[in-house]
Amino acid sequence: MRSIPAALKEKLANRFKVENTDSMAKLRVVATQTSVNSLLSEPIHEDIAPAFGDVAVRQTAGESDLSLAYAICLDDGIAKIYKRKFPAGLEYPWEYQWTLGAATDVAIEFNGVWKMNAAKEWYYLQTEEYPYIFYVRNGNLYVQVWHNNDNATLLATDVTQISACKGWQSSVEQDLDQGLIIGYLKSGSVYYRALCCQDNGSYVWEAEHEVSALGTGNTTLSVIRTNDFRIGFLTQNSGRMLLALTHRNYAGMSVRPETVHINASNVRMWISDITELDTLNKEYASGNVAYPYVLLDEPDTEEISVASVEKLNRETGFVCYGFKIHLTKPLNGSIDEGFPVKCALSVSGVTVASASYDSEEQVLVLYTSSDIRRTVAVTITMPEYRSLWYYKLGLQRWFLPALSAVAAAETMDYFTYENETAAISTISAGVWIDEAVFAEYFQPAHTAAITVVASSVSLQPVSTLPI
Fold first, then answer.
1. What is the model's pLDDT at position 120?
2. Which residue range(s) make up the domain with 385?
3. Count of domains forming the chain
4. Which CATH number is 212's domain given?
């Protein structure tokens, strides 16, 4: 039989000595998952054990991960709010925020929209800044945003227990929204209401619905969200666990969007007649490809042109306030604010104020900054514009070239009487006899014949208008 070495005997003696004298060192080992998405299983506070509570986490726009956790607890019937920073390490304990007041059950949850995390290839809830708080007081279920008591809304009456959960919302069709759901028990039956996005983009608390599949006699309720885009209502009923699931509501059709990346290669640029100047600053040139066109032309192909010009005439005043430019081909694209600025008129002081395109009449409509007399010929010049195009040679897009048109001058017709005559009467006249012949005897009656050799009639002008 082998003997025990003296060194080993001494170690054994020291072990029992430490235990007997209660001087053995005690270590506290805390094991937790290192993910920043995990909360440590630690009490929020130790002075009063919470009877009920709920937790919600926040990740707002611009935050790369979860940043805060909010908790609501019932301490002897008084609801209190706590906050904790992420990552949820021991250096970030729970902090008391404020007291909500008396309640028999509470819940807390964030509203938001679902976004695709391109790096991790999953959807995450991009939340609002503050959560929604639900509480039951005297059997009435209320909801409010954070600590704004003025916006508290009554959702239901005769409520015994509640549970809140944010449902899935489609990122393609916003009104396909399960909403921010609050489930509650009334006389053992399960009901819920949801804050959902409507067709016009507004959010409304929709009417109360009953989950009839769970029947009656339910004692507890938990509203859950599954990873396959459903909402579940989990209850305890006479020793059984019952679960009712909704239909799927895909956040982004469950397929990552496809993208096409285009890179330009072998791009060349020629600059002729380079003049070197020694300047103080470096100059740079930049360009963009907002409206690229690749044109393969054939000889003798028909190009777009102006077919005719029509004036937009006012009912009175013999003036026009714009022009309709009829084109030989239909246009596509859009007219922005830059197009009328580059149009020019030959009338001094008058510009093109706005422009539009009428696809039915196939005309460019130009409105002038002021009225123009219709008796004036107007030359209209339109610039080359790349946001407008027409189809040529099949399905080739050709940008609108520079065009010009002339609105001819018009005359104003005045209708008068024809074959007019003027009656002239002599008011007074004088007669002279150059040579007098006297007879030897007196003739009592003489007759003188007077001939008008020449006469003229002048009309005094009373207007600038022609007669």
1. 72
2. 306-407
3. 2
4. 2.120.10.10
Which of 373, 407, 441 marks a domain boundary? 407
Distance in angstroms (rounded) separating the CA atoms of residues 283 and 352: 35
pTM of structure: 0.50
Tell me the pLDDT band of 381, cut-offs 50, 70 and 90.
very high
**Model pLDDT for residues 295-307, shown as the tens digit of each residue:** 676 766 788 999 9
Per-residue model confidence as pLDDT tens digits over 300-344:
678 899 999 999 999 988 999 999 999 999 999 888 888 999 999
